[in-house]
Please model this.
Amino acid sequence: MEMILTLYILVWPVISAAVLFVICRAFLKDLREAREESRDLV
Amino acid sequence: MEIPYFEFSSTSMLLLLAGFYGGTFLLSLLVRHKKENVDGYMVSSGRVGFGIAAASMTATWIWAASFYAAASSGYTYGLSGAIHYGLWGALMILFIFPFGLRFRQLAPNAHTLGELIHARHGSSSQLILAFSNLLGSAISLMVNFTAAGALVAVLSPLSFTHGVLIAGFGVLSYTLWSGFRASILTDFAQLVCMMAVAVIIIPWILFSLGGPSVLAEGMSRLTAEQADFFSRTAILEQGAPFFVAVLAYAIGNQTIAQRLFAVRQDLIKPTFITATIGYGAVVIGLGMLGLMALLIGVVPADGDLNNIIPQMASGYLPPVLIALFFILVIGSLSSTADSDLSALSAIMMTDVYGKNIAKGRPDPRKMLLLGRITMIVATMIGLILASFSLDILVMLVFVGALWGAIVFPVISSCYWGRVTNTAFTAAVLGGLALFTIARFELLPMDGVIGLLFELIAAVGGGVVLGLMTFAFFGRTAGMAVGVIMTLVLAWYFAGFLGDYTVLLASLTAYGASTIICVALSLMSKEEFDFALIPQRVQRFQKSDSTQAAE
Model:
C-alpha cells in the first residue's frame, strides 16, 4: 500500500517536470528562430 | 487535527507581491510596441510558436479555483477525488482540439469565436456568444481577485481588500498596453513558476508529514466510498457534472478560442496535447494535497474546504516554500485574469465595435482605445464585485448552462450547412429555459415531467459522447455513438437522474438545445457555403511587417 500511495502521489510532479522541460525547450527554440528571422516572439 | 496558518509580515507580503507584479510588468515591456497593431493586440501574429502557446493554454486553463477545488474533491471523495476534477478538466482540452482545427480552418484570420459565428449566422447568434463570454470573464475576474484577497488576508496582516486591489491593478498594469501579446508572454513565465513550485512542494509535503507510511496508516480513516477508486458517488456527484460543465467551458470560452486563433495552425495539435498533460499533472498533483489531508486527519479551518491547501502549505512547508506556494497561487490567478482581460477587450473590439457598430469598417485607433478602456472598466467591475464577496454560485451556474446550450449549435454550425440563425438562437434560448426549470426545480421533477427531463438529459449525454467520438472518428461513428448512448442512458436515467439535480440540469441544456437545433435545421432548405466564412473574416489592420515594408 505504501508503494502504491507513493507512486500515485508522486507521479504527478514527475509528469509536471517532464512537461515543464518540453515547454522550456520549445520556448528557447521559438526564441532562437524569432531572433534569426528578426521578428517578435509574440 | 487543526493546522494554524503561517503568517508573513506585511512588509514580506508586499515585497512578494511587488516582486511578482513588478517582474511581470518588466517582462511585458519586452514585447511592448509604441503603436500596437489591433490584430496583434487580440491574437498576436497568428503564428505563435509551440512553447509559448502550450504554456499559455495551460496557464489560462489553470485558475486559482483549480487547486482549491481539486484538493476539496480529494478531501471529500478520497482516492479518486482529485482525478475526478483534474482528469476531466484536462481531457476537455484534448477533446476540443479537433473542433479547434475546424474553427481555424474555417476562419484563419478570426479574433473571436463570435466573429466566426457572425460570418456564419449574423448578429443574434454572435451576440449570444459575446454576452456569455462577457458574463463568464467578468465572473472569472471576480473569482480570481477574490482568491488573491483571501490568500493575502490568510497569510499576512494585510486585509482582503489590500489583496484584491493589488492583484487587480497588478494584472491590469502588465496587460493594458500590449493586450494578448503581453498576456501570452507573461503566461509562459507564470506557468514555469507554477510548474516548478508544484514539482517541489508536492513531494516536500508528502515527506514532511511523515512519508508514505503515515498515509498508509491513515487509510483506515477513509469510508468505503472514499477508499474505492471507482466510487459511484464520486463519479455522479463530482466527475460527471464537472465533465459536462468543462466541455461547455472549453468550447464557448473566448480565452481558449483566442489562443486557438493565435497559435501557428500546424502547431494546434501538439499545443493542445501538451496543455492537456500539463494541466492534468499540476492540478491532480495539487489535488493530492486534499487526499493527504484526509489521510492524516486534517480538519479544514472554519469547516471551509478551500482552507485545506493553505493549511497544508502552512503546516508542512518552510517559510521560503510557503512564499513560493503563494507565488504559485498568485501566478495561476493572474494568468487567468490577464487572459480574461484580453478576451473581454477582443470581444468588445471585434464583436461589439468591429461587427455591430462599425459594420466591418472599424477605425483601428478607436478599436485599440476601446480595447484598453474595456480592460480598465472590466478590472474595476471585477474589483467592485470581489469587494462585495458575492455568492457567485447562481451566476456561475447560469453561465455554465448558457455555454452548455451553445455547444451543439456552435459545433453543428461549423459542419452542417442547414443550421440557420433561427435554429441557433432558438436552440440556445430553449436549452437555457429548460435548464432553468430543471436546475431550480420550477416544476416538480417527478412523474411524467421528471421522466421527460430525464429523457432530454439522456439525449444530452448522448450528444456529449457523440460529439467527442465525432471529433476523432468522424460523422458516422459520432452519430452511432450518440444514438446508442442516448438509448442506454435513457434506460439508465429513467426514474433515477432526478435525484442528481446538477447533472440532470446540465445534460438538459445540451439535450434540449440539440433537439431544437436539429428540428429547426431539418425544416430549413438553406445550404450554407462555408467558403464564405474566410472571405467575411479578415484582419482589421495590416501587419507590422507589412507596414514596415511600405
Summary: The mean pLDDT of chain A is 95. The CA atoms of residues 34 and 40 of chain A lie 6 Å apart. Chain A touches chain B at residues 1-3, 5-6, 8-10, 12-13, 15-17, 19-20, 22-30, 33-34, 39-42 (CB under 8 Å).
